[in-house]
Structures are given as structure tokens and as C-alpha cells.
């Protein structure tokens, strides 16, 4: 069996007080599949959907690699993934993380009917909050890393007001608007979730290690990447797609013409989530992206009331 060659992968129900994990075999299988391919792979997802995670993992471990996966999966890669999972289990246990999988009762409702997103095999989570937080009403607040004082002020106030209205604030823990959104929620004694583009045991950016620890005290830190994984541009894009799918809406506060946060807005639209944007000075380069979103149909946000009112208005550019 798959679990005979792996240490126990920490899960939501796994621990000395809760008894044995009834999903241990499936959790181990999904941990292996997450390690097998570097990033989200629709062909692997289709295989898992067709035969299930246990059968898919056993088939690939035995060397029976389907033709559609042969360019992405090699026998050496299978062996490396199996060895890596053993270390992942130890690393996750040390940092207090657990692997949440679709078979868990706490799997986010927003993802239950969503196909084609990173995190399809599972998500590593750490934090003191209950995992049901991932299914509570939420808003993604993100924007420019090199944010202006205006953008920081707006993001902080907006996150605080939305927290007071009972919304979980989600963001990517980056510099600028992301950090302001998390801090605004924390200052309002609200709850916030950070979604990382790297392993759950890492801080990205490293300067935000303390912020991530503060988020984990009352909220959650989430990653679709296995422990010890480094950040890459491709993983940032995958993170954006997962973040957009988790939130009920995405609010962009400041974005330059080629800002990466515009990819997040596009991912939210592709997931059928409302996209909103905060206007700024017409003389500011950091307003070009948000003004373009508004011009293309995103809801203009001047306060938390606009966000609440626009939560069920999808954006169709």
C-alpha cells in the first residue's frame, strides 16, 4: 500500500487527540501527486478524476505512466517525488502545517465545484484558525507592490471595514497593498488568509516572516506548493489563480499598466468572481491598471459598501 512507504502526512483530523486519520492513504497519495509535477497539470488532474487519487498514485509509482503524462513524468521523477514526500511530512510537522485535501469535510466550498485550478490535489495550511474559515464570506484585496501612501491608506481602511462587516480578507502577503490589506484586517481584529507562491514552511517575501506569523496566530497561511518549494514566476501565477478562486470577489487597489495583479483580476474573472478596482489620481502611473479595469467593466470601489453591493455582479470585459 502507498502509506507503507510514507510517514503520516499531517491532516485536519490527524493527531494524538483525534485518533488515526481515516484519510491517511488518500492524503499520502495526494501528497505524492503534488510532488510529482512542478506545477498545476491538467492532464494529471484528469487522470485523478478518472481513476481516483489512490489508483493514480499507485499506477504512476509502479511505472505505468499514461502517454499524456510521459513528457512530464519520468521514472526518475517518480522516485524523487516518493523520496521528497517523506521529507515533506517531517517539514510540515515541524512548522505546524497540515495537508487539506478535497476528501476532507473542511475543503473550501468555493473550490468544490471549480475545475482547472492549482491546489486540485490539496493545499498545505498552517494557522490556529479553523479550516472552515476558507469557506466563509471573503474578499481578496491586492495591488501594487510599490504602492503609494494613498494606496496603503485605502487598502488598510478597506480591509478593516470589510473585516468589520464579517468578511475574511485574503491576499498574497506581498509588499505594498497585500501587506496593507493583511495589516488592516489584523488591526480591526478581523481574520485574514495569506496564500503563498512557495512552500508553507517558507516566508515570501522573507521580510514578511513576522507578518505571516501574526496572520497564522488567528488566521491561516495557505500554499498549493509542497513544503521547501521555492517561489518562481510560474508559481506566482498559479498562486494568483488559487487566490482568485478562493475569494468571493477580488478588489485591486493600485496597479501599473503591466502589473502582475492584473493577472489576478483576470483569474478572478475566469473563475466567475466579481472584479472591482479602486480609482486613483489620473496623474499616477499606479492608477493606469485600475482605471483600465474600471473602463472594461470592473466595479468601481470607493468604500466597503461598494464591495458588499457588487459581490454578485460578475465582470465581463
Automatic annotation (TrEMBL):
Signal peptide: none annotated. It comes from the Bacteria. Residues 1-22 are annotated as: Disordered. This is DNA-processing protein DprA. Belongs to the DprA/Smf family. Coiled coil: none annotated. Residues 99-309 form the Smf/DprA SLOG domain. PANTHER family: PROTEIN SMF (PTHR43022).
